[in-house]
Amino acid sequence: MMDVLYFAWVRERIGVPKERIETAPATVMDLVNTLRAREDRYEAAFSDLSALRVAVDQELSDFDASLTGAREVAFFPPMTGG
Amino acid sequence: MMDVLYFAWVRERIGVPKERIETAPATVMDLVNTLRAREDRYEAAFSDLSALRVAVDQELSDFDASLTGAREVAFFPPMTGG
Amino acid sequence: MDIRVQEAAFDLGTEANGFVARQSRMGAVVTFTGIVRDLDDTKLRAMQIEHYPGMTQKALEKIAQEARDRWNLGDVLIIHRYGKLTPDEVIMMVATAARHRADAFQAAEFLMDFLKSRAPFWKKEVTEAGADWVAARDADEDALTRW
Amino acid sequence: MDIRVQEAAFDLGTEANGFVARQSRMGAVVTFTGIVRDLDDTKLRAMQIEHYPGMTQKALEKIAQEARDRWNLGDVLIIHRYGKLTPDEVIMMVATAARHRADAFQAAEFLMDFLKSRAPFWKKEVTEAGADWVAARDADEDALTRW
């Protein structure tokens, strides 16, 4: 069980800022595939992974990172601070 | 005829901030040699030219620069602004 | 380290003076300030800044600590706003203090380069034509390679 | 260009805010501030800054113009004091504005590098042990070679 967060246009495409996932995907990529299989809005958000960044438990991470023990995963576009 | 100005420790060693020279040295080096020949305090100020900088008519210049038409020559140590 | 992520406006001048006053033995202070501007003549009305509340403070602290490890610094200040800003408002600032200017300059540039691409902020510009997320610039990602 | 050589103290915060307010379309502002500090624990009592009145303003204008020729800048501000300053007083500041931060940072560093070694200012430190002219640092002369 983990929280999945979305920011910026990822949030807008998926339509919610946050949701709880009851399955236990092994990696970020497994989580992405689980989500993509759900509905078109997820497919639209995740169609180009090179345009996305991911954080696991609030640390920047990679799509092949393990989710063992992870409590929070966030997807968002490249950051534009400053 | 030209004004010769001294700044920082050059001014302190020579003892005046400014003086008028009535001769017409051809180059900065000629002016330096004329001054060195005068008194010990000039010799003390000009003994190490690598420690000095020169401006001719308020523009940074070199010791071999011509003084033809120059109205003001200034000698000083390397600058320490900022 | 003084790191603040806030919705409220802040005053650059007050912060810069306060930062200088809190240092001792640091002869050089560099500040960077980012301001909402209508750079491309799009009749910019507002800039909406979204962030990742749980992560932002930690990400900025990590970047600031990295700067302190790399350079001989006094203090580091980062203030970054989120929420709705209008043109000419100050978005964010960093300040660095060091004994000598090279450290202060390099640390400030480093903070800005990492803050741009590694701190979880996203900007949306609201113009006459609609609202659009600001795209990350390749130059910003490239800027990281020099450190 | 706003270039001021003055004996009077000035307020960094007021100047920084004023500089930002006078820009338009410039999203990035960098400032550098130099402060009198007792860097080497010599019980510094004062810093006496001498300059070459006829030349200083012209030299600073030339340096500022060179920066404007090299980078895509909005405005440039330089304020440099002379006379007697006491510890923790602000000696000088530069500010640069640009559309993007790289130009603002590079121009500010360039201004400082040239101002350090090419503007006719000389500093004398008055400490418990006496008064001594500050020697130019080799690092400051070397810094010019990168431009």
Overall helicity of chain A:
25-40%
Whole-angstrom Rg of chain A: 12 Å
- Strands in their spatial order, largest beta sheet of chain A: 2-1-5-3-4
Mean pLDDT of chain C: 96
The helix tally of chain A amounts to: 3
The end-to-end span of chain A amounts to: 34 Å
Structural class assignment of chain C: alpha+beta
CATH third-level topology of chain C: Aldehyde Oxidoreductase, domain 3
Q: What is the alpha-carbon Rg of chain C in Å?
A: 16 Å
What is the annotated CATH architecture of chain C?
Answer: Alpha-Beta Complex
Low-confidence stretches of chain C: none
Mass-distribution shape of chain C: globular
SSE topology string of chain A = EHEHHEEE
The outline of chain A comes out as globular
SSE series of chain C: EHEEHEEEHEEH
List keywords for this structure.
heterotetramer, A: 82 residues, alpha+beta, 5-stranded mixed β-sheet, 5 strands, C: 147 residues, Aldehyde Oxidoreductase, domain 3, 4-stranded mixed β-sheet
Describe this structure in a few short sentences:
The complex is a heterotetramer, with two copies of chain A (82 residues) and two copies of chain C (147 residues). Chain A is of the alpha+beta class and 82 residues long. In chain A, 28% of the residues lie in helices and 26% in strands.
Care to describe what's here?
The complex is a heterotetramer, with two copies of chain A (82 residues) and two copies of chain C (147 residues). Chain A has 82 residues and is of the alpha+beta class. Chain A has three helices and five strands. The termini of chain A are far apart. The mean pLDDT of chain A is 96. Chain C has 147 residues and is an alpha+beta fold. Chain C has one domain (2-144): Molybdopterin biosynthesis MoaE subunit (Aldehyde Oxidoreductase, domain 3). Chain C has helices at residues 12-22, 53-70, 101-118, 138-143; strands at residues 2-6, 28-35, 46-51, 73-81, 83-85, 90-98, 121-127, 130-133. A four-stranded mixed β-sheet of chain C has the order 1-4-6-2, with helices on both faces. In chain C, a hairpin with a 2-residue loop joins strand 7 (121-127) and strand 8. The radius of gyration of chain C is 16 Å and the shape is globular.
